[in-house]
Amino acid sequence: MAVRAAVAGASGYAGGELLRLLLTHPEVEIGALTGNSNAGQRLGALQPHLLPLADRVLEPTTPEALAGHDVVFLALPHGQSAAVAEQLGDEVLVIDMGADFRLKDAADWEAFYGSPHAGTWPYGLPELPGGRAALEGSKRVAVPGCYPTAVSLALFPAYAAGLAEAEAVVVAASGTSGAGKSPKPHLLGSEVMGSMSPYGVGGGHRHTPEMIQNLSAAAGERVTVSFTPTLAPMPRGILATCSAKAKPGVTAESVRAAYEKAYADEPFVRLLPEGQWPATASVYGSNAVQVQVAHDTAAGRIVVISAIDNLTKGTAGGAVQSMNIALGLDETTGLSTIGVAP
Ligand SMILES: NC(=O)C1=CN([C@@H]2O[C@H](COP(=O)(O)OP(=O)(O)OC[C@H]3O[C@@H](n4cnc5c(N)ncnc54)[C@H](OP(=O)(O)O)[C@@H]3O)[C@@H](O)[C@H]2O)C=CC1
Ligand SMILES: CC(=O)N[C@@H](CCC(=O)OP(=O)(O)O)C(=O)O
């Protein structure tokens, strides 16, 4: 019997990418599609690339519209998911693509999001140590942020293997879709085209505590992260350049061996052959993660680069992967590592 899935926030970027994936998922039947300001609009007017759903009309996001499904995906702005989720009952699988349930520490949430903490749900990054076990059979999933996905997958193997000191430096470039669909002055075409610019500099970005949470869990001690996000003139993609001081005795061979071990059986993460580097173009529209490692002996640092599509593995693909695990389906169902090029 098909898994009936509702999507709240179907007019947004994350909701649109999710629907693109669900349309080819063999086990899923697409149910209610809801929006907010665009309720009453045809989906074809908002997501013209989703041709099979063009004549579906968005409903308002209400408990009534979302009732009667096996899975409800919430692709809503931060702070909007908790009130919707609590009206859905305990039997339905709820997958929150926003931030509301990602952080364990209420003080971190309040410091970075400025509202009361709604709680913590099982975290939807199966590749992390214990990640799959946390999701199996779960009725609630918190999908990670896009930057924390790229950065955690780049650095956790070094921490889990005890190779890196507990301080990491990350500079990551993101495509503009990471900022969502609603108009923003710094995202006008003429501001973004032909330019790269930093933002959230100096520890202020709300994804920093999420990275610290993931890397500290892998290391077994508190890891600090100096994170600088940058905006790149492209619609999709994240390229994360991450480094950490190597512990004494670490060699290029021991670093590579740790990453080969961590990713040998992962269906979506590819440790590239030596000499080849991750690129956002190579993962465009796919759920793949490209990773490469280097040991900078002069600086005494482990350097790891990762590339993801922020909307696929960084949001909607990660959500589908977690849904598959939670429902006991093959984890890769409906997901692809095949990109689009050129
Ligand atoms: N874009 C990305 O790369 C990533 C996004 N996410 C997360 O996914 C979520 C959605 O992001 P994204 O799609 O980019 O954002 P968009 O701004 O593109 O879309 C937001 C969606 O939420 C709906 N919405 C807005 N306000 C409300 C409200 N008060 N109540 C109910 N629905 C509302 C909008 O409906 P309408 O258009 O009808 O007003 C729209 O469907 C966010 O929490 C974001 O953090 C996570 C990882 C990456
Ligand atoms: C380019 C850009 O603006 N990116 C967003 C990250 C989007 C995302 O994945 O984060 P959430 O799921 O936590 O919203 C930002 O830096 O705020």
Automatic annotation (TrEMBL):
What InterPro entries has UniProt attached to this entry?
AGPR, AGPR_AS, AGPR_dimerisation_dom, AGPR_type-1, NAD(P)-bd_dom_sf, Semialdehyde_DH_NAD-bd
Q: Which UniProt keywords apply?
A: Amino-acid biosynthesis, Arginine biosynthesis, Cytoplasm, NADP, Oxidoreductase
| Domain Semialdehyde dehydrogenase NAD-binding, residue spans | 4-136
Cellular localization per UniProt: Cytoplasm
Give the residues annotated as active site.
146
Which SMART domains does the protein's record reference? Semialdhyde_dh
Per its UniProt record, what Pfam families does this chain match? Semialdhyde_dh (PF01118), Semialdhyde_dhC_1 (PF22698)
Q: Which pathway does this polypeptide act in?
A: Amino-acid biosynthesis; L-arginine biosynthesis; N(2)-acetyl-L-ornithine from L-glutamate: step 3/4
Q: What class of enzyme is it?
A: oxidoreductase
The reaction(s) annotated as catalysed by this protein in its Swiss-Prot or TrEMBL entry are: N-acetyl-L-glutamate 5-semialdehyde + phosphate + NADP(+) = N-acetyl-L-glutamyl 5-phosphate + NADPH + H(+)
EC annotation from Swiss-Prot or TrEMBL: 1.2.1.38
Primary role: Catalyzes the NADPH-dependent reduction of N-acetyl-5-glutamyl phosphate to yield N-acetyl-L-glutamate 5-semialdehyde.
Q: Which PANTHER family does the record cross-reference, listed alphabetically? A: N-ACETYL-GAMMA-GLUTAMYL-PHOSPHATE REDUCTASE, CHLOROPLASTIC-RELATED (PTHR32338:SF10), N-ACETYL-GAMMA-GLUTAMYL-PHOSPHATE REDUCTASE, CHLOROPLASTIC-RELATED-RELATED (PTHR32338)
Tell me which family the UniProt entry assigns to this protein. Belongs to the NAGSA dehydrogenase family. Type 1 subfamily.
Recorded protein name is N-acetyl-gamma-glutamyl-phosphate reductase
Q: Which organism is it from?
A: Streptomyces griseorubens
